[in-house]
Each structure stands twice: as structure tokens, then as C-alpha cells.
Amino acid sequence: MLIIKNKIMSKFLSNSNQFKYYKNNFNKLKKENGKLKKSNVSLKKKNSSLRNELDFSNQIINDLKNFYILNKDSLKNNQSNSKKKLLYVLHSGSGGTPKNVFDISKNITVDFDIYLLTANNDDMILYHFIGNEFRKINEWTLYSGWYIEKTYIMEYSNIYLNILINYSIDMVHIHHLLFHTFDLPRLCKELEIPVILSIHDLYFICPAYTLLDGDLKFCHGKCINSRSEKNCFMPMSDISKIKNMKSFVYNWRYMVSQMFSDISYFITPTNYIKNILFENYDLDENNFSIIEHGLELNEVKEELFEIPSIEEPTKILFLGNLHPQKGINIIKELYDIDKDSNLEFHFLGFTPSYLKNIGIHHGKYDYEDLYEHIKNIKPSFIGIFSICAESFSFTLSEAWNFGIPVLVSKLGALEERVLENDGGWFINIYDMDETYNIISSIIGDQEKYCSKQKQIQNIQLKSIDSMVEDYLQIYNNINY
Questions:
Q1: Helix axes of 154-166 and 183-190: crossing angle, nearest 10 degrees
Q2: Looking at residues 409-414, what average pLDDT do you find?
Q3: Are residues 183 and 298 in contact, defined by beta-carbon separation less than 8 angstroms?
Q4: Hey, is 49 helix, strand or coil?
């Protein structure tokens, strides 16, 4: 091993001109590789010179990686910025996870220089956190095509290596690997860069991360629980080509277990997610933390709820974007059962056309305006009728933050958090007649409702500041 290292050291002198040469070749040949793949040329059979060029490019990449490993300390000592460089990784889009990343980022800029890498089917985009916002600084068009079955792709690996080396990343915090490959954790391990993985859903239990079978029944991550002869429910089209998820899931878990060996530290928001991971993988308690998602806690100076009464319709607010896994079918079923219109349905966020003729739709909203929306609606309940297990539920935190009791399905983190905090009631997602009776009994007993509402005042929600402190403790103590 020492002889090999000495040969590499003699081949790559640790000076800036040499390093720039390899970086420039890396970037140039990376683009050429993309063009070759895009043209769909059979390199081995049709053009040996192009094959040789591709081989040379890959050799440059491997040499650059080896050179970086051997000279990492001296290269980092020459950096003008003394802050540690932290790379966040997730898929493109909006929702709770990007918000969580932004909330952390804006509070740790004193100690960290922050980058964000997102991906979709077409490209990867690298952002730099500057002036309290993420600004795009680089973009790579993807030619290989992302397939969930193919967890290692050379093109992706080359892009990751480019970023890790050219931006001198000190630490990687992955928040999701959807539209990414498992190359990144592997490279981090090779480059001795610690990598943290936050697990926000059940993607690493099953690519069909809702764990709903073909009949929209929750399987709890155990295919044997499903009696459906149909393929599992696919929450997104990019995984729908897997024709037999019940068979593929075992291959998936093997690949995930291999990838997990490249992770330095794991974080989940609830015990529910931790427990289901430990049921399926051999993980170490010492490398695992539960950190709830923090919230901007509002100082509520007025009542934002309305005590239900049999004298007028009771308002139930469904907050956030509604999709099949969020229980749109059972919302419709509950509406149909309510023949006397004792319930008034309100929707704040995206709703599918399936629900357009039901209740009052307030449209999409910005988070900053949520307080005013709640104030104007004044619901008696916030309903979370998910038919799959939630991993945390920002909506649940927001409901309690505004002092509003919830009606939730008895699954996953919803069950865990409501049992722990006693801030609402469970519905039966498999029996809407029973659910209607549960709601009716609460409406008919104002004392019961008011007692539950007062209990919400005792719930200790996690603030963003507290969440950030927990993350900083991990960041400052983690070693490869």
C-alpha cells in the first residue's frame, strides 16, 4: 500500500498548477462523457477512439480522487475561508424537508459555509447559501436517466466527485436520496468526509414510500400483510415501472443496507421511524439521534378555534396539499355520510379535482400568511386523515401551535405524537360511520372539547432554535 501511495505521490505533485490541471480536465471530460452518452453511441463496437477517450476521462477522475485523498489536508489549509463547508442534499421540489433545510441553514452561517444540491430526472443544481437565500451557482444536465433500480451510475458519481473536491466539502448532510444515486455516500467514505443521513419518510423501507398496497391498505412495511393482488400504490410516476414491488423491495433493502454502511450518522424526527428502521436494518444506537422538526412558534394572543356546537355546522380544516395517501377518499366518504350538513369542510392548500365540489376551498397559501388564514377560518378541528404512516407531520405541529385540536388517523407518528401529548382524537380510517359518530359525540360535549383544547397549551413543541442546537451538537462532534 505504501509503494502504491508513493507512486501516486510522485505522479501528482501537490502544487496548485497540477491540481488545477486535473480539475480542468475533469470538468472538460465530464461534459464530453455526457455528449457521448446522449448520442447513444455503442462505444465498444462503433468507435474505439471514443471508448479510449472515455476510459482516459475515467482515469483522470480516479487520479484526481486519489490525488485529493493524499493532499486533502494541505489543500484545505490553503483555503481563505475558515468556515467548514457543509453540503445539504435532497430532491427538487417544495414541502417540509426543504423548509427544514432552510430553517437550519439560516441559523448556522456563523460556523458553516452552506451548499445545497438538488436533483430531478433532468438535472442537478448546486446552490450556495448567501444573504439568507440559496443562490444557484452550478448546474449539470443528466444524460444517463435516473432509475431507482440502478443505485450506482458513473455520471452521477462524477458530478458528486466534482462537487466534493472542487468546493472542498467538509461534511455532507443528506435529507433525501430520491433522484440521487448511492454513489454519494460511497464517495464520501472514500474521501473521508463524514456523511449524515436524515430519514424523513419510509423511502429506505420501500421505494413506494407510502407503504400502501394496490388496494390502498397500509402494509406496515411487511408485504405479507397485504392481500391485494395488484401492484403496490406508486406515489410518483418515476417508480411506477417496477411491476412487482413486493418482490423488488427485498433487493432494495439489501442495496440500502450496503449504502447504510457508508453513513456516519443517522437522524430521524420520531421514534416511529427509528423503530421501523431498526426492525429492518442492523444499525447502531450510538450513531443515531431523534430530532423533531422545529417550528416558528407563534405567540397566540387570541382564540383561533371555534368551540363546536350542535346549533351550527362544525368546521373541520384540512391543511396542506392533499393527495390519495392523505385520505382524499375517506374525506369524500365522510362528507357523503353527513346528510344533514352538520360538518363544514374547509381546505387550505392544494386539493385535487376529486374534492372540488366539497366544502370551502381557500386555495394555496404562503407559510407567512398561515396565521391570518387560520384566524379567518376559525376551525374547531384540523383533520389529518392520512391512510399511510406519517413520519412526523408539520401539519400536526402547526395545529397545536395555533391551539386547535386534531382529528387524526391512528398510524405512525400521528399515533405516537397524539398518544404522547393528548392533543386530539383518533378517527377510524376504515370505518367512516364510526368516525362520524366519534366526531358527533365530541360536538355534543363542549366540556370534553374544551378540556382537550386546554391540554394543547401544555404541549412542548420544538422551536427552530432548539432544533438547530441539536444539529450543531452533531455537526461539531461528528468524525469520519
A1: 40
A2: 97
A3: no
A4: helix
